[in-house]
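Supplementary material to the annual report.
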Amino acid sequence: MSFLRSVAGALVLARPLNSSRTVQTRRHIKRWVAPTLRELAHRQQKQGPQKPEPRAGYVEWNYRSELFAFGKRLGENFELPQLQEAFTQRSYAHQEEEKQRKLGIEEGDLKIADNQELAKMGSHIARAYVEAFLKQSLPKVPKEGQEAIASYLLSTETLANVSSHLGTKDLIFTTEYPPSPESLAESLQAVIGALADSSGVERAFLFVRDFICTQLNQKDLLDLWTPKQPVQLLEEICQQRKLGEVEPRLLGDCGKNTVLAAYHVGIYANRQLLGKGFGEDVPTATETAALDALQSLFDIHENRRPFDFGLQVETKNVRLGN
Amino acid sequence: MSNSHLFLKSGFPRAPLQNGLGRYVCQLQRITLKFCKNNGSSKGMRDFIENHLVDFAKENPGIVVYVKPRRHRTPVLVGEYLNGDREWLSCRNSTQEEITKWVDLLRTQNGSSSSLRLRKMWHTDVPSIQGPWTPFLLRSPEAHGQEYPSVEASKPLDAPQTATEKLIELFRQQKQLGDEDVLSQKRAE
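Predicted assembly:
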């Protein structure tokens, strides 16, 4: 085929020599396209996967509009300079200062505000509010359990997840892209701080409730907090609440002395069944039963009444002091 | 569903970040309208920008709108979502009404719906309210103190009466009747 084509080309080229007509332009088949594309693809494959491009590098990018929209999207009124400060990580500020110092700018003009102060304030507000919220919505859970649940809500992973779903990823000024979970979490705390500064602590509390406390929805609370020694804890609780002596009893078993043995243990106190559980041997089953009893005593069963996220925690109950 | 959907990302309809539980956050974070200033295929897009875009931006302050004119290219809508999705829509030869509808779709969905195959139209984290069935569930009270091996429990439930058993039963009935007859005779005496 290519031979034929080259012969045809030669004929076309040869024609002007024979006749006196002007050279007719012809649409050639571009035979360089496919090899070039192949070569480009080959080179791309050799380089491996590329790093994600920061959105800020696009032509259609306006940081000011993005900041404005960030506040409006969440239904809050931020002061934009403060919000921008909340998105400036310390590492980035240092880097910028270093660059400017190299250019010979005086020390007095070098200061770039970073979000450390705001993040500190925000994390303080978030912790205080989450603790107050848990105290009000899980009144029967002991302090240890409330602390465990609060530490889940305020952990870097949870905060980073919330932060990235609020669209901070493209707004944060950091030295690395995409921003690390730590910087995502820190900037969310800083946003809470900035909100408290611009529209008052009450709005910041509502923000924490709407975006951080709601992460508890449909969570199994036993996953977030499992008592280490449930039987001892159950005994203590029963003593405190005067429910009577704790007494585990075998409700049933099957497959004794086999690999697939199963024991069903119920925990009674004062002839009342508190909880029951299964296990491959009696101690395990007792422990499961104790956990079950604790769940119903603390009202953290999986079929408990759902959390009320419209809850108004009174400001005086939020312990901001210290 | 065609074969081309087999490798499409699949999932369940879910609200990201418990959206709407605390407060509702519009999931479309920015929208880019690309169009040509004089090509006919961009007519609808130009009309949309002229007549509706300012109102749209005013009504949705949480969405950043970028308008990008470019020569002799097809008009395009690009939506970017909070979950990182990016949706590209060609609006070649669309009218402004059609574009209004597409923009409204982008505004109200929570991710790029065209790149997700729904496995089911519903989803639940707790499939069973009652919990899993166990052999200990709803057992009869007699089964509790049962000693094994037991003759009673080993019998089939639907075993018919044997001829021998029937005879023995008949004999017992007669004997009982006989005893009663003797008693009634004695009473009569």
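The mean pLDDT of chain B is 89.
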